[in-house]
């Protein structure tokens, strides 16, 4: 296979692209000295520190074959990737040393670009069949003592300068999490709460994460298990996230980590941005969805039209399909667990509580924290929770969005359970609902789960129902459809108070430790 094809295939596997931000590939002077098969992975400006401890502005270019040190447009040095031994990295500053056996080392410094350069260097080393990026991690801010500024043929003399710490190996496929967590290792802190482990990060190009980087601003929901906080990133006030925290003892951590390793962004599921473990706590950071939850909208307008409801249910169905394809039962469909954005697109939420409680339910350790009116009869009778329970709950949701109340609602929980298990479904006479819609609701609310629509072929069977005939599924999944319900938003306002209620933070809630 051609080298360019190999590189593109490998970058696709990593879900990244080359990062030639300085457009070096367009520089004629560079292309004259680069090999024809050479492909640029990254170009960045950086500070080079010489033997007199003076910082000079340079450009680093890492290609599929070489690393270049460039002064303006002049190539000062070209190092074959094969010759690079490894790097020394400071945990206390932004310095690093590039170690090149039997040649001079390079000492660099860059707050913005150091980590991403090392990541792409690990990719180039992998492409050249090297055994990972070798890395010394040290606490010293100034790395002068580890850098050989004069060329020598005495390899032992050069190696003697290397730090006396363990040599670590980093590979591209798990570089990011390993690197972040190595930098986060506490050095002198005696407080165990300061130790964090990053379990997941959605931004492939982010290499530093600390809890102190985030500021809790307000409480936007007090759920049955915990409070939900709105956060901003201190160095980027436009970056708004939602925080949900659970105790590690409440979930199966091994299964959660397996899920995170296979996590993919889905169009109609709340987007996870970051997951951090802090001793016995697990923090989930989600993308903020501006319109709040569907329950607030339902309360605001009373009920939705049939066409509005149809597009909402279509999205819920696609979200559940993606969850089921991963072998997971969602387990807690209700308006409070469905978010809506400013374009009217919806997202299943309750990732940390819904899906992970299902893991526990599989181990028969605890019950799902259902709203009873959404629970399926087989769950109430026998404790059976399967994907068919989700389709039953979606039928309840469909009814409630149209009518404004669930079909078996009763303030007395025992009576509500009895009504669900009897399954006598009635449609109010004063509300116009199409026969196709009534048929779908009836088939979703079948008492016998094996007779319920979706049993044979999950959501594909439901999609084929006549009520969804007009839906263009591909267009909807790509979010190119102008939806019939678009929330009313106050322009220029981050938190829409008509949909999201805010609570003030206590002093204890403001901190992380």
From TrEMBL:
PANTHER family: RIBOSOMAL PROTEIN S6 KINASE
Domain Protein kinase: residue ranges: 214-468
Any one GO cellular component localisation term in the record: myosin complex
Domain named AGC-kinase C-terminal: residues: 469-513
Entry protein name: Protein kinase domain-containing protein
Keyword list, A-Z: ATP-binding, Kinase, Nucleotide-binding, Serine/threonine-protein kinase, Transferase
Organism: Paramecium octaurelia
Alphabetical list of Pfam families matching this protein: Myosin_TH1, Pkinase
Entry's Gene Ontology molecular function annotations: ATP binding; cytoskeletal motor activity; protein serine/threonine kinase activity
SMART domains assigned to the protein according to its UniProt record, in alphabetical order: S_TKc
InterPro entries noted in UniProt: AGC-kinase_C, Myosin_TH1, Prot_kinase_dom, Ser/Thr_kinase_AS
